[in-house]
Amino acid sequence: MFWKVESRKEFLVAESANMDLMQLDGELIDSLMSYADKIDQKVSKLKRLAQELRQPLEAAKGREEEYLGNPLHSFPLIRHMYQDWQYLAEFMKKPVGEEEIGFLRKKLPELPWQAETEEATVYIFRIAETHGMMPWEMANGLIDNVRLNSTLSALDCFEVAKLYFKWGYFKQALQWISISKTRLQEEYSGVYEVLGMSGQDVALLQARCLVELDLRDVALELLVKQPDLAEHSTSWLDQFEAYPHMTVDSPPTLGEDFKRLCRSSFSPKPSKLHCRYNSTTSPFLILAPLKMEQISLEPYIVVYHDILPEGDIHQLIALAEPRLRATLAFTEDKSDSVFGAFLPFKDMNSSGEPVLDRLTQRMRDITGLQIHQRNRINIIKYGFGAHYAARHDFFNETNSETEGYGDRMATVMFYLNDAPNGGATVFPRINVKVPAERGKVLFWYNLDGETHDVDPKTVHAACPVFHGSKWVMAAWIHEYDQMFIQPIYREGKMKH
Ligand SMILES: O=C(O)CCC(=O)C(=O)O
Ligand SMILES: [Fe+2]
């Protein structure tokens, strides 16, 4: 797996970036209001002028000849006609609110780009898919039995519909369009048109989806009802048939087991494993035994509870937050799984904070293994919709990391906050789900303890977070670092 830092995707993961975005939105709205006020002022000036200019005409009504016989009437008329209209032409031509337009133009490059907006739409898709939510449930803020205090607007739903259409999911696209239409209130249709969503666009996308689903008749019925499309409705449909939709790229694939485990409806079978106090892994534990829960024996997976002191968590998050960068994680087969903000430990370690030493020591105590503060410790923050696609932590191949330190034989992960809405770590092959709970530590071996054969059953993923965020600190523990503490080593079958 490779990491790539993508600074433009910040909006998707960093609350601070979104906060900046909200603040900018506020400034732009203020500027829009001031633009409207300026137009208002011009309009009322013009109306007042028109009223004043009309007065002599009103006074003369029905007795024009007599009226104009008075030089104090005819002179003003001539002067007015010669002078005033020239000035008025100038005044009418004068642009209004140039400053505000300039401000908006200047800010446009700071706003999210299309790629980011699409990515955010993909998050909606991923959450809907993972939790098997119907479009209307998502649009009403119902996710995995949790009711969020928010809804999606007509424009939002239309954007999601376009994404489903792009991927060739015509039925879902139609559902999203129909929600969008019900949210498109008549009185606001003019407003929506300004924002790039006309009734015509909606009807055409709807008709196109219907044609793709071999429902030309229904599509025709729809278009003839649309005043601006009725006349050419058949030629639209002919065109849609002649040029069927070409599916461009594909939606992220989410395994069935992944989805099943991520849902709150999943309840694990009672296991024969149990909880106990561990006081044997390292000398430290004799003094301070830790509450340990066995999750699986093969592969070996355990959870420790109540490990991290509040103060350390606070310090760590405070240290990491300003340094987080939006990140893309690359694997060989999947190149685009953005999953959150990420901070390599070495970037943070330069600050020489004692909390980092304390936490690394804690990891050593828990695992009984050697952990070095190189760049193998990461802090990850998952924002809305962010997840971690299923993969193993071992490489089972020769690369610069395995050559130098051996493979990633074990993983230890601290949950730094409660993430009750999504965010669990799941091992789809062995039906294991570990909810993200503050202060908990998850530890597992990726390789067989004796032979160091890779264990494909350790494939794991992080469920998308659909409300709030999830913070973890994870360390990959390497084989060669254990050289002096693990003398027993038998050659395995599957070793690279
Ligand atoms: O965040 C999680 O639950 C999984 C993270 C993980 O697998 C890793 O960092 O290796
Ligand atoms: Fe992992």
Describe the structure.
- The chain is of the alpha+beta class.
- It folds into 3 domains: 99 residues; 129 residues, Tetratricopeptide repeat domain (Serine Threonine Protein Phosphatase 5, Tetratricopeptide repeat, Alpha Horseshoe), CATH 1.25.40; 227 residues, Sandwich (Jelly Rolls), CATH 2.60.120.620.
- It is built from 20 helices and 16 strands.
- Helix content is 46%, strand content 16%.
- A hairpin with a 2-residue loop joins strand 2 and strand 3.
- The strands form 3 sheets. It has a 10-stranded antiparallel sheet with strand order 1-7-8-9-16-11-14-6-5-4. Strands 10-15-12-13 form a 4-stranded antiparallel sheet, covered by helices on one side.
- It is elongated.
- Helix 2 packs antiparallel against helix 5 and helix 11 runs antiparallel to helix 12.
- Bound molecules: 2-oxoglutaric acid (AKG) and fe (ii) ion.
- It is found in: Endoplasmic reticulum lumen.
- It holds the Pfam family P4Ha_N.
- GO terms for molecular function: iron ion binding; L-ascorbic acid binding; procollagen-proline 4-dioxygenase activity.
- Catalyzes the post-translational formation of 4-hydroxyproline in -Xaa-Pro-Gly- sequences in collagens and other proteins.
- It comes from Drosophila erecta (Fruit fly).
